[in-house]
């Protein structure tokens, strides 16, 4: 059993043995197949103001967009045609999409016979309940950091307590619940990362998404200098320890890992990850999405080739947690 002291020593290690062990645990508990989840980032509008994030409401240097219900459904259909069995709806905390609008979208998605994952931020008990009744299966809400002080400085008008409360509500309502952390934030300690991992265990998280913090120039942390390569490896150690501790959970090779290291996705898949979440929307503006709905979809083929090259397969089921 991994206790806090042991986790800290693993976080401080070079990780070689750790990554191998996490890979073995992954193979033993969730097998070789990789689950692909089709990601639709349907709105980059957000009422929150997190210090690290380019979508923060105070950032004026960004073109805000919102996809319509029809656009979302069309992307989901094209994802389904590519064999994707899960659609992930992600957005900033955007009040434009009311409970009713979202429930309608969820109901339409469920008619495609896909698993539906939501990643919409902090909502009320009633809203989460309504999404569940509409058919949503999973919810992603990263805790980001369990360090109270750090949480406060990075999230104006938000609280760690409420974030935890949201996660416990999601579990209670029967969502497969995903959480995770940002790794390498200014003033984040190794000890607090160990606490993050213990929190995933305490919550009994079903999914864990961990990624390196990447400074965004249009945020207050834009100038923060991090040694990106070291940060990549630290986030990988957090991910690998999470695999060893929680065993049968679903763990993505995150986009941030891929962004910060050219082989990030591959290394993550060999260090405990069993999920990839390709973006199935053209990442430009709304106008561009509508004109070329199937653009940018070829990267799924690249991802598939990578998976096969590692001697792994692509899962053909919806990829729920298999206890
Ligand atoms: N670098 C890396 N990840 C980030 N996120 C937000 N801003 C950044 C950043 N600068 C992550 C947060 C959020 C997820 C959707 O994106 O962890 O939960
Ligand atoms: Fe970014 Fe999410 Fe914070 Fe909004 S709530 S600013 S999208 S991290």
How does this model look, in words?
This protein is an alpha/beta fold and 323 residues long. Helix content is 43%, strand content 11%. The strands form two sheets. The chain has a seven-stranded parallel beta sheet, covered by helices on one side. α1 packs across α8, α2 crosses α9 and α4 (99-110) runs parallel beside α5. The site of iron/sulfur cluster (SF4) has 9 residues, from loops.
Summarize the entry for a quick read:
This protein has helices at 4-11, 16-30, 69-81, 99-110, 125-134, 148-154, 160-172, 190-203, 228-246, 255-260, 264-269, 286-291, 299-309, and strands at 35-43, 86-91, 115-119, 138-140, 176-179, 182-183, 207-208, 211-212, 275-276.
For the structure shown, list the relevant keywords.
single chain; globular; 13 helices; alpha/beta; 323 residues; binds iron/sulfur cluster; binds 5'-deoxyadenosine; two-stranded parallel ribbon; 7-stranded parallel β-sheet
């Amino acid at each position: 059993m991994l206790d806090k002291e042991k986790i800290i020593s693993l976080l401080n290690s070079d990780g070689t043995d750790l990554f191998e062990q996490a890979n073995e645990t992954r193979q033993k508990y969730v097998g070789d197949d990789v689950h692909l989840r089709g990601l639709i980032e349907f709105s980059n509008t957000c009422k929150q103001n997190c210090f690290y994030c380019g979508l923060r409401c105070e950032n004026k240097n960004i073109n805000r967009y919102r996809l319509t219900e029809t656009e979302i459904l069309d992307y989901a259909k094209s994802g389904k045609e590519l064999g994707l069995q899960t659609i992930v709806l992600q957005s900033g905390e955007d009040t434009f999409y009311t409970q009713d609008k979202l429930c309608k979208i969820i109901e339409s998605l469920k008619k495609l016979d896909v698993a539906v994952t939501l990643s919409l931020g902090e909502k009320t008990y009633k809203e989460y309940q309504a999404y569940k009744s509409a058919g949503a299966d999973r919810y992603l809400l990263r805790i980001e950091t369990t360090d109270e002080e750090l949480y406060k400085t990075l999230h104006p008008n938000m609280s760690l307590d409420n974030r935890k409360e949201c996660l416990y509500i999601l579990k209670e309502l029967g969502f497969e619940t995903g959480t995770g952390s940002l790794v390498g934030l200014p003033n984040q300690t190794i000890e607090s990362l160990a606490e993050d991992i213990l929190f995933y265990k305490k919550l009994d998280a079903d999914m864990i998404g961990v990624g390196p913090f990447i400074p965004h120039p249009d945020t207050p942390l834009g100038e923060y200098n991090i040694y990106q390569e070291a940060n990549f490896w630290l986030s990988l150690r957090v991910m690998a320890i999470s695999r060893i501790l929680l065993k049968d959970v679903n763990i993505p090779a995150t986009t941030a890992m891929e962004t910060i290291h050219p082989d990030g996705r591959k290394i993550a898949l060999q260090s405990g990850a069993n999920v990839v979440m390709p973006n199935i929307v053209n990442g430009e503006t709304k106008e561009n999405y509508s004109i070329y709905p199937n653009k940018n979809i070829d990267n799924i083929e690249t991802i598939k080739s990578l998976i096969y090259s590692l001697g792994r397969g692509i899962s053909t089921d919806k990829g729920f947690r298999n206890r």
